[in-house]
Amino acid sequence: MAVMNKRRFFHRRKICRFCADSNLKINYKEPSTLKYFITERGKIIPRRISGTCAKHQRHLAQEIKRARAIALLPYVGTYES
Amino acid sequence: MNRYETFSIFDMEATSDERKVILERIEALISGRNGTLLVFDKWGGRKLAYPIGKKNQGYYVRIDYCGNGELVDAIEQMLRHDHRVLRFMTVLQASDIDPDALKAEMAEAEKAPEPAAAPEKEVTAPKAETTPIESEIEEKE
Question: How far apart are CA B107 and CA A45, in angstroms?
């Protein structure tokens, strides 16, 4: 990183969970995996906080939206298993 | 042939016989249009994340099949008309696949304890490719 950011909030050095563990699949049929990536209100957690890489974040967002369409995840509110 | 997956939510108040009728009709549709039904995965009754049609529970069924776009349209049309189906969603899993090869893979997966039928096939294929290369190297040496 050549340029230093003057304001660094939420500087995370987390690794992407899905890159680290290749067995972890992102699938709209598994809300139990997806629920870690939505807030209490049901919103998708931004990448800079969850630490996922760009590719997996795109995949994750698409699968969360699919799960919401099928009522496996809520649009608003927490996921109760 | 493309591989599709249709996720449908049935009304919990519908009896299992009524569900069977609908699923059998879908099966007839699939075979009628030269498709291949792979799996009828019944998830059973489940609490919905939000009420659909004022109902809080639904019976989930996942239908895995191979076919073309017309088949998908026909299945969706049937599900749309039936008032016992609350919601459905079709997802394209893979395009241009051979249903017979896929069925063989799935049969192997059922026999083998690990769900590694596909990786097994991939592993054997590279082995076949590398042996000719090795023989070429030997010849050069």
Answer: 39
